[in-house]
Amino acid sequence: MLQQTRVLFVSFSLLIILILFWGCDDNPLAPEEEQPKDYAVYAFDSTNYQYFEYHPLTGVLDSFTCDDSPVWGMEASADGKYLFLAAEDYLAKVDLITKSTVATLPYKVDCGIAVSPDNELIALSMGPGFVIARVSDLSIVYENASLDYRIVSFSTDGNRLYGCYDTSNTVAMIDIENSFSITTNELSVGPIRTLKPSIDETKLFLIWRNNKSSNAFTVYDVASDSITFREWLYGGYVDIKVDPDGRYVFYTEAGDYVSIPGSNYFTIYDINRKRIFKISTVGIDDGINPIYMAVYPMCLTPDNKWLVIGESPKGKSFLRFNITIMEIDDFIKGDSTAHLKYFTCQCN
Amino acid sequence: MLKKTIISLKIILLLLLLTLFLNCDDNPLAPENEPDKDYFVYMFETDHAGGHYYMGYHPASGAIDTFTAEDSPHWTMKVSADGRYMFVAAEDYVAKVDLQSLQTVATLPYRADYGMAVSPDNQYLAIIMGPGFVLARASDLSVVYKDTLLDFRSCNFSSDSKKIYGYGDGSYHSVVKMDLVNNYTRTSIELSPGPVIHSVVPSLDEKKYFIISEYDMWFNHFEVYDLVLDSVIFREWIWNGYNYLELSPDGKYAFYTEGGNEFDVNGSNYFTIYDIERNRIKMKVSTVGVKDGINPEFMALGQMAITPDGKWLVIGESIDCAAFIRFNMTTMQIDDYIQGEINEFGIYMEGYSCFTCQIIQ
Description:
Chain A is mainly β and 348 residues long.
């Protein structure tokens, strides 16, 4: 009898423990959430020739110097271990641990650098000229001295490269897996300033020049060969980023540093809903007498949690936008002499 | 022995089940979410053929009703705080219209050409004239207080209905507070010399004023004045013209539009959400693409109405207001666009005005 009661009691207890574990959403058996990774966003201060390393997760800001300095542009490797610097007449690969240049390539990379998401290739565009090299040792994979497109982005799978040219409405696509064949597509827009493909490459997000004082953000649908969305922007400098999840496009309209002040907000385009909303910088430093802070260069962390945006035109300050809560939650006021450029972060 | 054990086990089971229910986030004992109450946002519609009618838009369902009533607004209209009556500012009088029978049940012979305000407790109706101010009981429109010389503009009741805030009373740079429980005494705060005030809305705790003021023919200010600090704590430059300002019922956000004017100022094709606690602009919500992503019209925004549950913000197009949008305040997205009739020449046949919604849930 006692034996039967014990068996009954133990079975019952086990059943209840099982109900407790499986019945709740906050399952105590579930693995703990992964800690967010502390990615670094790099920028270059072209006045004081120093690099900034900002950690959006913690808000920590460091600075350092290197053997080389960028003149035309700067990109982090996809794994975040190296910086590629477009110096005056060459490309330098800088080790971010030792801060030393570990390899160089003798090209004047004055029209852009792109690193493939798989960290295998780096594309360099000159005006004119185009080179694809291996990230590991900068050995050349492909070279075309006459190609005159500014390479702006790899596809997500790293198999294609997209480019455009400031004075034309043509988008170029280089198929790396297919003998570097180039296909071009003339779009019914003005000269294309910059572009990004969507994650699935069914759409192109473009900013093109309408006239001296206005640009346009446009969504081009590849399958239907048509424009599906357009917004008119201020003229001048622009930047565009697509978030790693493919939900949003972020873009800035920075003005021309001369007569067009640009916008003191940046825009978020919701890709699925085809809608936009704008995040203003008014009041982030001082609500009473806020500086007019137009924004320009942007950088996304690969975990899609942070967007770091620099001030335009002089880039003394920058801000951190928390993508999860959709709010600006840090404002970093730099030295009054600083001119921060080339915000970059690993993409993997 | 076995019986005792079974009883003990039953008690343990009950206790454990109770613990389970109380510890789980998705508590099965919790009451189900109440369905959204179907509030009306009223507006008055004028078609180009000279017809006039009221429109009741249900933000929760997206349904639209139209009706006519014995009286029509000439200057403006305000729905009562409980949503049962409409106060209609006709040419030379104010009419109280029963929204069930659509009959006028009371009138007051004042020309409310500078607007009206309804107290959140549904007790009072403030009638603003240029000049002149009348406070009447909402129940029967009997006059409680009257000053035919008072120049008191942009009146808004405090959340406890005991004070009215506006500007004027001798200076268009002063915020004026009328104390309804203290012999209608008025106190003024002269803001630092500068812009002429266009509208004033107090925060729920009355510690801040949200102000729209005119800077010059091109620009206005949206400002936040902190009474404790006696200073402006936030300012944004916005386009001049028809600017409207509303607070969310929970007091978290101020919404404002920049409607431009009929002359040189286009206004903005977005509205702004100001986060009161964070003293920041939360976001600007654009109308680009709400109608047509490819060839979007420039849709500047004007009048607004918020449902008392704080779920929906309905915003009309500026100037002619041939269309309006619904903004879902839970998802922070524009999720409906309603356009009036267009004739064969592509000209809008209708215009909406006087957006108003009840205050009490």
